[in-house]
Design goal:
By secondary structure, the chain is α/β, with parallel strands linked by helices. 33% of the residues lie in helices and 19% in strands. Strands 8-7-9-10-14-15-6-16 form an eight-stranded mixed β-sheet. It has a three-stranded antiparallel β-sheet with strand order 11-12-13, with no helix packed on it. It has a two-stranded antiparallel ribbon with strand order 1-2.
Length: 417
Amino acid sequence: MIAKIVESEACSRCGLCVAACPEGAIELDDSCQPQVNENCTSCGICLEVCPRNEFCFSSIKDFVKKQNKPHNEEELLGPFCRILLGRSTDEEILDRAYSGGVTTTLLCYLLGKGEIDNALLTSCEHPKNQFCGHPIPFNAKTRDEIISCADTKPCVNPILAKLPADGDKSAIVGVPCHIQGIRKAMWLAEYGDKSKEICKRLTENIKYVIGLNCFFSFRKNGVDELLAKVNRQEEELSKFYNWKGKSVARLKDGSEIDDFGKMGDFSVANIGCLCCYPSYSAKLADITFGKCMSEEWGWNDIITRSEETDTIISEMEKEGLIKVKNVDMGKSELLEALLEANVFEVDSIGYGRYLDTGEFESAPPSGQMMLEQGKESSIKGVNRIRLIQAVKRDAFYKIVKSEREKRGIFNPLFQDK
């Protein structure tokens, strides 16, 4: 049943179908791709829950908004209460964190207050390495376990295969495809057909849905593949991060590598990510964290998307657990002009060619090209989120959808009406 999603390269590898299958008929292969075994009864539940089969975005968004009561909404930013910058004041967390450490600080705060008793997070296969890009789902129940899961793991991670999360009151942290899967399952728990009771069981103990910005994920061993191009190994790294759209590997001697040859980091992209309904900033989360608004490393983007998480961020600031900075919400005239001219609606990567030949024409325009239109007119702050969301929508989602339609290839059905 789920095979049509996988075979058409639309799968995000979120893992939800694995958790939802009542027969245990779906397993993940070594690349985290779902495979159907002989136990399948063709019940159709996997397709009903799959966010890449059908996703009623407007209905699910309204369902989430009814609970979260956000004060604002923009098409490019989604529903929100506030957008600000934040940084943890906990040195232990900052030492381990990817950037500002606010995600980890929030989870520790919620655990300490008794608001959660578990967090379904992303740990790693090689914890002894200073950096490990091999993610594994992990139920964290203590402060130390939460902190151990900090830092980025940019490869696909089928974290939803671990649903239901442990505990009675769990948080879950994921990128947009994970958040879409969780929210669809929550919606189906109310309005579903065959999957209604299963989705209730999978999601009823989830109290907080925490999103992370994501443009695309790497394949299962994507970091290894990138490092092999420059004759390096994961064990040599102290950090791996993204700066203005470019992946950077920092070696233990402090030197950095940001040139990974032809196609750059796009060469190891999970192809299914290109079918993602445009939600770079996890619009359906209760709160979103990222790293793109600040010119200074060490600060998180924070988008509070519910009244409750907005209040929690304020409480954390009052208690001295985080520092925050307000951001200018004004729109960039340059970005508005670019959007008006539809400059991003072009197949810059050659997706059509990929469908025909298996090869892309080029890598996407680098983050430097997208984000800096000249020193005097750079698109900064919250407008960077707007810009990246627009590029994801116009240069990827719309193009991919059109090229697949031309060739009669299965397209995920996203309903935004």
